[in-house]
Structure formats: C-alpha cells, structure tokens
C-alpha cells in the first residue's frame, strides 16, 4: 500500500524497465532530450498544455486510461492547430455506463492506438511543457501510471491544478473548491461537448487564459508562481 | 496537420461563426479556412485590446464572448460623445486593418472578454477567398442594410401579391419589342397597325429610333374623331410629344414613381444613345397587384367628393404596404407615399377651388415638416400654409380673408381624408401661416436674425417648405431669399447646429442602446426623436449653410456632402443609415396600424433580430459621425 502511494506521487523507486522497439525507444529518447522547462519565463512566453483524460472509471488504482485530450495555450493564445487527442486501444471495453459518459464506444476503444504509441505521441506533443488540468490529480495519476506501465519511465512533469489556482486568483467570485462547471458558468464559457477530452480541455484552457491575465496583474507572472499559489492554497486549506 | 482534436476546436469555432452575420452566409470553404486560423485570446476587464499606440495592427478581432468598449482616440473633451459597445459576433477594427493603418479607436474589454484573433495575412486571404466576407468588410454598413431588407422581404412575402421586385432594372422587365411608327406615317396607317396588332399605343420615333411622341387608343377619339382630323394627316400632328423616358438601368420603382408623379401609363425605356429599347406599361408593373397604382391615382384624381377620397387614402396605405413587402427602400417608399399624398392633397384643394372664388389672386399651397421633405410615413398630421401676392396693401386684409376661408375648408377636408389637424396649428387656415411673400420673407429673416429657441424650432419646421399647388414660383422666390439670408449668418447656423446636437444618438456605454427612462415607455426608443431627427436636423443645417435648395434629407446629405468634399461612400453610409431607421419606423407603424393602434415611433430594441439590432447600432454610429462633423464645422 505504501509502495503504491509512493508510486502515485511519482517519487517512488524507479519503474520496472519495459522492452521497447527501436523506433519507440528512439522517440522516447527524443522526448527526454527535448528542451527542459523554464518555469521562470512569463506566462505569455510559455507553452502550456491543458490536459483532460477519459478513463474506464474513477478508481485511480484500477481503472484504465482510455483517452487523452490536450489543447495548448501558447503565448496566451489557443490555436486549434496546436491540439492533441488520442484513444488508447483497450483489450477489454469499459462498461456501457462508462461509455455513456465519454461517448467513446466499444469499437473505438478496440481500434484505438497501441498504448505505447499513444503515450509516445502525447509526450512528443507535450515536450516538457507545464501540464494544466482541473482536479489535476486524477489526470496526472492516470497518465503517469500508463507511462510507467507502457514505457517504463517516470513522467516528471510540472503539473498545475486550476481547481486550486482559480479560487485563489478570483476570490471575489468563488473562494472554494468547486466543480469545473461552476467556473465555466461564471465565465460564461460554453463546453461544446462535456466529457469529450478535447472539449473539456478547451474549456479548461480558456479558464487558464483568464488565470494568466489575473495572475500577471497580481505580479504572479510565471508558471512557477502558479505552482506557488497552488502550494500555498493547499497548505492554507489543510491548516485552516 | 489535421487531427481529431484540431477538428473539434475548428468545429467549435464554426459553430460560433455560423450564428453570426456575415459568417452565416459565407462560402463553406472560406469559412473553414477562417475557422482553422482563428486563435482565441482572453482579456480581463479594462484590459486594452487594440489602440492607436499599437501602430498598424497585426490582427483582426472577432469578439467571441463579453463586451468591448470602443472609444474614439485623441478627441479630448468628447469622451462621452464617442463611446459605444460591441457584442459577441462583431468584428473590429475593419477599416484600420483593411487599410493597414493604426486604429483610430481604443478597444477595451468591458468585462471578461474572449476574442478570436486572425492574423492580417489570413484576414486578406479570407477577403480574397470569400466574396461575401469581402463585401462585408468593404461595404460594411450597406451590406448589412441590404441583408435586412432581404429579410424584410421574406417576412412579407406571404402577404405580398406582387412577384416582381421593385428594384429590378427596367431592362429586365421589358419583354416585347415596341411597335413604332415614323413621324410622317399617316394616321390611317397607324390606326391600322394598332388594330391589327391589338395594341393600345404606338411610339413615334425619328430616323435614329429616338422617341418623338406617343399615340394611344384614347387619343383616337379625342384628337382624331371628334375634332375631325383627316386620316391622311401625319401622326406627328396629333401625337403627345416629348414622351416620358427612363434609361435602361432605372428600376421598376423609378417607373412607378414617374407614373405616379406625371399621371402617365407608359414609360419609354431608352439606351445611352437615347434610342428606344422598349415600353413599360403600368400593367407590366402591377400585373399581379391587387391595388393598382393607376387605379388609386385615378380614383384620387376623379373623386367627386371627400367621401370617395377617404377610400383612396386607405388604398394609398395598402399600396405602400405592398411596396414595403416588395423590398422597396425606405427613401423611395417615403417619397412615394409623399407623392400619392400630394395627389390626394391636390385633389382636396381642387375640390375646394370649385366652391371658392380666388380669381385674381396669385397663391401657392405650401407643405412643411416631413411632407415638405418628401419623407412621410404612414402616420402624418398636417403641416401646411399659404403664400400669396398682394400688390396693393389696401387689399391685403380682404385677400387674406378669402384665402383663409378656402384654407380652413381644405384643412377640415384633409382631416376627414386622414391627415389629422396639426395640434400646433401649423395650418394654412391659421392667419399666422397664410401670408404674403414679403411677410413670409420677413418672418424667416426674423428667425435667422434672432435665433432664440422658438425661432429655431420654427426654422426646423418651416424651412423645409415645398410648394404643392398653385404658383410654384412664389415658393422658389422665398427659397432664394431664405438661402441668401442663412448663408450669410454664421451665428444663426451655429445656433441651429447647437439645436441639432441637443439630442444625441441613444448608444449606451454598457448596454447597446439607451432606452426611454419614462416608465410609460419603458425599454423603447423613439426612432423619430432619437433616430430620424438626428439626420434630418443635421442635414438641414448643412443645406442652409451651403445654399442647397433641396428639402429632402437624403438629397441634402448627398448634395452638401459633395460640396464639402465628403467622400461619396461616407454620404451613402449616412443615407443608408437614415433609410434603415425610416424602414424600421415604417415597419413598426404598419404593425401598429394593423393592430388597430395609432402608429407611433417607439420600438423595443430587444424585439429586433440580431442583424437589425446591429444595423441600428451602426446607423446610430453614423448619426454620431454626422453630429461630430456638424460640431467641427460650426464650432459648437
């Protein structure tokens, strides 16, 4: 149990190596060699990747990762060309209740991309950009677990959780942990297809744009400052 | 690279675009190209989006969510005067990006704003790809106004019996070759041709096929049989010479107007060389129309008494509705209503002439206000007066009394026919407005010399006078002396300008429109006071300053614009704006009358569709531009 939790946090022992084909190994090496993240650059000179995942359920230990959707916010702008979506091939199709949520049907699941290629595609798309999500723990855990299982490496990305950052920046509007939909309603952002990974990621990316503007006005001008806000907020909640 | 995620984001942009003009009508390929290239940005409340300091802009903006405040830059002291708000779906700054110059306005987020950005290169690419977008950008306002007119047409399509649109050129209406004869052809021959071809009229043309005259069936009786003209005489001796002609490019509406104004049944269509190309008859134009123009005119002109005139007056309104349905523009329509109302008024005057002896008096009937400007809508009350010549001062009282008797009868009859009495007593039957030429001149000069509030109010009504019946030259004389006086008097013009500026366009800073604060009219805008009047009042000042004799506002704007070296596009924009407001008024009045209510000018902007709301906003912006010009020109 303890070992499992430690792995969840991404700070445990090195993952068990996985044998990869030469092509896959090369792609992985290319990703590892990509320029590292500089968390001290301003928001408006940073490429953020906003991520949303769909899984076979909400159990972070047992449920499987089905799809990843991602939308980049580059220099403050969302460009439709810079976006990503992949469905991971499933041996076993998720339950029909689950399918009803994300709308990825049985055949789409069976015909998805081979998980190692899907994940390599995702890593290639992200590079070492800071990853942003709403209630990020779930997305982070699902993606890290899959990367570990299928690629045998640790994804050591900088994650930012808007569920913590937004209430700190917009205290006058909502000063609490709420659902994503509450923020979307507040900013009057349409989610064209709720529970579609890309659509959710787009809506979340628009929230990130608002957060960047507000944070910059407050002097919190970099990805690192988002991380600081999140940490302080979590600490405050725990102790308060 | 096109992947499924990109497709999803492009679909989201497309979904948005398709809900807003002009994108809703844009070519599929160009629209897709555009949607792929839109980048989404966010602006916090009060954040600047575009401003003159940014220099030549690299992006074109399309508002996706929230409101944007637009302020004219550099006009110190006019801050409130030049603000307005943009709503989702609106683009900016079209002019600056197209011309590749810095924006003249400052665009600021009024609340949380999401804005699509399109790189300038892509903007021009879309312009090249899409004729719809190109037209939208280059003829921003005119296009919108047309779209609305088309919409209006659709709305009324079911009610309209007439198929032909009044805007189609005459060249598309003439179908048959006109049958002609040379001036020397004998009467016998001509009548033979007419009988053989079963035609009611024949055109007489010269050797180059230029129309010289027209001869109709009814002329046979009146001009040949009864006077006993020998059948060997040339047709030229009995034809009606100088027939009314119109160029090929004229519209059906022009032909209708010519028929209404001159009481004719046929209009000859000629090419650039003046050669006959065909004939358009009233029947061609109103073949399918229940209420014929000629019928109305005829029933007006031959009505033996007031009772029958009342019937004709209601027909005028029905015909106007038909024309509204056919998409006739407001400018033409209001002129048209005026033309028929003129005919009506003239008949009322004629009927009264039979009962009053005015022998030996030179006089003319004048109309003022909207009728004087040829801008009548469906509900118009009377504004009229009389001008007469009095050579001997001793006769003045007596002459005026005779005219007043006459005028009062006319005022009462006009009221019965459907032009309510003027509550302000501006009527020919009021001794104050039944005056000699010299007295009118003196009155006008007095108002010009001493522009106190009452004088300015009078000027705004009376200076739009136009003769309707009688000796027209009396009115022309008065016009000349008035223009001479106003052109020389800067103070008067400045006061008039100030007066015209006392009402500003109802554009809101936060909301789109400022509506009436009066709880009785909550949420409405009076489109006469806060719409049409803005243009009418400004145009009057420009006309009086420039010595332009026209009283019609659209004509005044065009003529004074040209004199002031204002670009014709700009003048056209102003006229389009005025026309749009008039169109809304007509539509609204018609609706009110149909509901059995007295037509007023109050519209609720929330009840307009999005397109109309946006055009209305643009029309108010144009009004503001016009007011700014007035401000500058007269240093108010």
TrEMBL record, chain B:
Keywords: CBS domain. Gene3D superfamilies: CBS-domain (3.10.580.10), Jelly Rolls (2.60.120.10). Pfam families: CBS, DUF294, DUF294_C. Signal peptide: none annotated. GO terms for molecular function: [protein-PII] uridylyltransferase activity. Residues 22-127 form the Cyclic nucleotide-binding domain. It comes from the Bacteria. Residues 174-231, 239-296 form the CBS domain. CDD domains: NT_GlnE_GlnD_like. This is CBS domain-containing protein. It comes from Rhodocyclus tenuis.
């Amino acid at each position: 149990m303890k070992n499992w939790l430690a792995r969840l946090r991404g700070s445990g022992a090195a993952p068990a190596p996985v044998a990869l084909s030469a092509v896959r190994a090369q792609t992985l090496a290319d990703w590892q060699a990509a320029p590292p993240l500089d968390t001290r650059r301003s928001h408006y000179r940073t490429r953020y990747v906003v991520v949303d995942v769909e899984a076979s359920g909400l159990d972070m230990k047992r449920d499987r990762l089905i799809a990843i959707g991602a939308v980049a916010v580059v220099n403050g702008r969302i460009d439709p060309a810079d976006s990503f979506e992949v469905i991971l091939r499933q041996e076993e199709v998720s339950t029909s209740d689950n399918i009803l949520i994300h709308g990825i049907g049985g055949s789409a699941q069976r015909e998805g991309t081979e998980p190692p290629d899907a994940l390599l595609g995702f890593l290639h798309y992200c590079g070492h950009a800071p990853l942003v999500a709403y209630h990020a723990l779930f997305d982070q855990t699902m993606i890290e677990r899959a990367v570990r299982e299928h690629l045998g490496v640790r994804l050591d990305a900088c994650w930012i959780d808007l569920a913590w950052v937004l209430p700190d920046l917009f205290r006058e509007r909502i000063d609490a942990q709420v659902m994503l939909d509450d923020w979307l309603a507040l900013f009057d952002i349409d989610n064209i297809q709720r529970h579609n990974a890309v659509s959710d990621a787009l809506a979340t990316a628009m929230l990130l744009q608002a957060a960047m503007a507000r944070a910059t006005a407050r002097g919190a001008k970099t990805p690192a400052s988002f991380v600081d806000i999140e940490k302080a907020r979590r600490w405050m909640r725990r102790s308060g | 690279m096109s992947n499924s995620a990109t497709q999803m984001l492009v679909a989201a942009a497309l979904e948005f675009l398709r809900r807003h003009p002009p994108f809703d009508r844009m070519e599929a390929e160009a629209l897709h190209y555009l949607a792929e290239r839109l980048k989404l940005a966010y602006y916090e409340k009060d954040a600047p989006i575009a401003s003159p300091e940014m220099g030549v802009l690299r992006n074109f903006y399309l508002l996706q969510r929230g409101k944007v405040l637009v302020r004219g830059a550099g006009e110190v002291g006019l801050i409130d005067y030049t603000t307005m708000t943009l709503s989702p779906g609106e683009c900016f700054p079209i002019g600056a990006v197209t011309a590749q110059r810095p924006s003249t306005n400052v665009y600021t987020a009024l609340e949380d704003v999401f804005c699509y950005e399109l790189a300038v290169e892509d903007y021009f690419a879309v312009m090249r790809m899409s004729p719809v977008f190109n037209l939208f950008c280059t003829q921003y306002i005119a296009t919108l106004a047309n779209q609305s007119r088309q919409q209006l047409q659709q709305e009324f399509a079911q009610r309209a019996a007439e198929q032909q649109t009044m805007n189609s050129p005459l060249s598309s209406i003439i179908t048959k070759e006109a049958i002609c004869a040379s001036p020397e052809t004998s009467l016998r021959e001509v009548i033979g041709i007419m009988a053989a071809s079963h035609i009611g009229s024949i055109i007489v043309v010269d050797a180059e096929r230029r129309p010289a005259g027209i001869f109709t069936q009814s002329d046979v009786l009146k001009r040949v049989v009864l006077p006993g003209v020998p059948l060997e005489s040339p047709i030229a001796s009995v034809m009606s010479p100088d027939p009314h002609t119109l160029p090929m490019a004229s519209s059906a509406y022009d032909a209708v107007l010519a028929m209404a104004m001159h009481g004719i049944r046929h209009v000859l269509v000629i090419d650039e060389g003046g050669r006959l190309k065909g004939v358009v008859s009233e029947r061609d134009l109103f073949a399918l129309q229940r209420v014929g123009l000629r019928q109305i005119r005829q029933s007006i002109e031959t009505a033996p008494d007031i009772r029958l005139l009342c019937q004709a007056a209601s027909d005028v309104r029905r015909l106007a509705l038909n024309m509204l349905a056919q998409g006739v523009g407001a400018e033409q329509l209001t002129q048209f209503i005026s033309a028929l109302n003129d005919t009506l008024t003239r008949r009322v005057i004629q009927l009264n002439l039979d009962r009053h002896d005015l022998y030996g008096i030179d006089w003319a009937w004048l109309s003022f206000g909207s009728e004087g400007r040829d801008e009548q809508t469906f509900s118009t009350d009377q504004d009229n007066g009389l001008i007469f010549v009095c050579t001997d001062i001793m006769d003045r009282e007596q002459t005026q009394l005779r005219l007043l008797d006459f005028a009062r009868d006319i005022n009462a009859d006009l009221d019965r026919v459907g032009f309510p009495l003027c509550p302000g007593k501006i009527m020919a039957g009021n001794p104050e407005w039944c005056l000699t030429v010299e007295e009118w001149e003196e009155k006008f000069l007095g108002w010009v010399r001493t522009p106190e509030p009452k004088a300015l109010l009078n000027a705004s009504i009376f200076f739009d006078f136009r003769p309707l019946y009688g000796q027209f030259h009396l009115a022309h004389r008065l016009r000349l002396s008035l223009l001479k006086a106003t052109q020389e008097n800067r103070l008067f013009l400045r006061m008039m300008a100030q007066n015209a500026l006392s009402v500003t366009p109802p554009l809101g800073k936060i909301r789109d429109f400022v509506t009436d604060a009066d709880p009785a009219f909550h949420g409405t805008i009076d489109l006469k006071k806060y719409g049409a009047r803005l243009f009418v009042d400004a145009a009057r000042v420009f006309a009086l300053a420039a010595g332009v004799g026209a009283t019609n506002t659209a004509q005044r704007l065009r003529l004074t614009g040209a004199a002031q070296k204002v670009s014709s596009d700009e003048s056209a924009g102003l006229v389009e704006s005025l026309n749009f407001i008039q169109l809304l008024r007509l539509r609204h009045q018609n609706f009110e009358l149909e509901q059995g209510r007295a037509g007023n000018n109050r519209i609720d902007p929330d009840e307009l569709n999005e397109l109309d709301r946006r055009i209305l906003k643009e029309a108010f912006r144009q009004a503001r531009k016009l007011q700014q010009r007035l401000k500058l020109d007269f240093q108010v």
